[in-house]
Amino acid sequence: MQTSVYTRTAVVLHWLIGVAVLAQITLGLWMITIPKVPIGVRAGWFNVHKSIGITLAVLILVRILWRLTHRAPPLPATVPAWQRVAAKTSHVLLYVCMIVMPLSGYLGSSFTRYPIVYWGVRLPHWGWEAPALKELCSQVHFVTVIVFITLIVIHVAAALKHLLVNRDGVFQRMWRIWPGGSPAKS
Q1: Beta strands, E only, 44-127
Q2: CA-based torsion, 154, 73, 57, 103: positive or negative
């Protein structure tokens, strides 16, 4: 079944950000288990995590701007109304997580005495040492990652349901390589 597809730009941004977010979440969950001794090892991984997070924030901003200027293709008429509402709601919540995650991470890092190092370049420190604010941002960051993981699982499960059970072309809208799912140009 052929249906409208996302633009090439939307597809590239979707998969690039999707893979990077999964890698970033995995890195974040792993790095909090790194012992604080020897000094430097944990900090090095935190700096990598921050660098990926800032890069992701820029890509997410580009994706949001793209999405605001390019409408999503319509779902097939066979998709029930409740699934349309669920899809719209889950996509909005995914975008909220994509905004809150890097923002809470950056703000939390700004309220410590440690510098934010972006791929080896020390960024200007505009914040101050405020343990309570740092802790608040850390809690927001952690709760958001739990919500984000849950939404990602639901998103992937729904996509696979459309591919393997419904076979209604919804999955192919965001999968360039899939037969019949060739995206529109840029």
Answers
A1: 117-118, 121-122
A2: negative
Residue with tokens 């799912």: 181
Q: How far apart are CA 10 and CA 16, in angstroms?
A: 10
pLDDT tens digits, residue range 22-44?
Answer: 999 999 999 999 999 998 999 99
Q: What is the pLDDT of residue 181?
A: 46
Question: CA-CA distances (angstroms) from residue 144 to 75, 100, 134, 138?
Answer: 28, 7, 15, 10
Q: Write the pLDDT tens digit of every residue in 125-149.
A: 999 999 999 999 999 999 999 999 9
Identify the bridge partners of residue 122 per DSSP, sorted by sequence position: 117
Q: Which amino acid is at 87?
A: A
Q: Look-up: residue for tokens 């319509």?
A: 74
Task: State the pTM of this model.
Answer: 0.90
